[in-house]
Amino acid sequence: MLMLSAYWHLAASAETVSYAWLNRAVPLLRLFFEGEDTCPDFRLSRVSVIGLLQLLDQERDQGWGPAIEVLVFLVWLASASYRVVSRAFNMPRTMVHNVVHHVCGDLLQMMPYIIRVPSTAEELRKVGDGFARLAGHGAFHKAMGAIDGCHIRIKAPGEPHAQCYRNRKLFPLIQLQAVCNHAGVFIYVFGFWLPRFRAQCQGPQEQPPLPLCHIPGPWAIPVG
């Protein structure tokens, strides 16, 4: 099958070595590598995409490389369809699936080092001062984050747990709770089922950790 994202060339030598060249005729690849606006197709600014590439830039001797994998992953997030991504990059859907899960795994490993609650006195003071400046009031000096949440509609998993994800309107979802600091940077994220369904569908030993409700001590999280 012809791959438009890259093509392979076998070099004759003592050992056969595979090389890959980027085919910039692919519209999404040309858009990124020629410096065009990435927001409409990747849903992230160019600065954010480059930052993500730098985080995931790992040496490897096979595969598509971090740049292609991250771009495939971002288009999948934007479209939520393996078929759409497969057509956009002219990759087999199984390969798109593998790339998406590979990048997800890398991000999950890095998440505790990137998204974290301020812990030192200096970090807390900086965030509190930032909220006080935004609010124009000294009462916010002890604020350390703004919290909000939303319902995210999903495709329900198979039985017997499909009903565990359904809300009162009978469509499946999970809840996302997030906290950001004064600069809009996420410091905490948590995805979970609705509590009433979680209690019904899981035993005491299977309960996931509860979402963040408060931070001990004098610091507070204003509701967004």
CATH C-level class of the largest domain is Mainly Alpha
Instruction: Give me the side-by-side strand order of the main sheet.
Output: 3-4-5
The radius of gyration computed from the alpha-carbon positions, rounded to a whole number of angstroms, is 22 Å
Report the order of strands and helices: EEHHHHHHHEEEH
Structural class: alpha+beta
Write down the domain tally: 2
CATH architecture of the largest domain: Orthogonal Bundle
Q: Terminal Cα separation, in Å?
A: 50 Å
Largest sheet: 3 strands, antiparallel
The low-confidence parts are 1-19, 204-217
CATH topology of the largest domain: Cyclin A, domain 1
Total number of beta strands: 5
Compute the number of helices.
Answer: 8
Structure overview:
By secondary structure, the chain is of the alpha+beta class. It folds into 2 domains: 6-114, Cyclin A, domain 1, CATH 1.10.472; 121-206, no CATH class. Helix content is 39%, strand content 16%. It contains 8 helices and 5 strands; from the N terminus they run ββαααααααβββα. The protein has a 3-stranded antiparallel beta sheet with strand order 3-4-5, with no helix packed on it. The protein has a two-stranded antiparallel ribbon with strand order 1-2. Helix 4 (65-79) packs across helix 5, helix 4 (65-79) packs across helix 6 and helix 5 packs across helix 6. The N and C termini lie far apart (50 Å). The model is unreliable at 1-19 and 204-217 (pLDDT under 50). Keywords: Membrane, Transmembrane, Transmembrane helix. The chain crosses the membrane at residues 64-85, 170-194. This is DDE Tnp4 domain-containing protein.
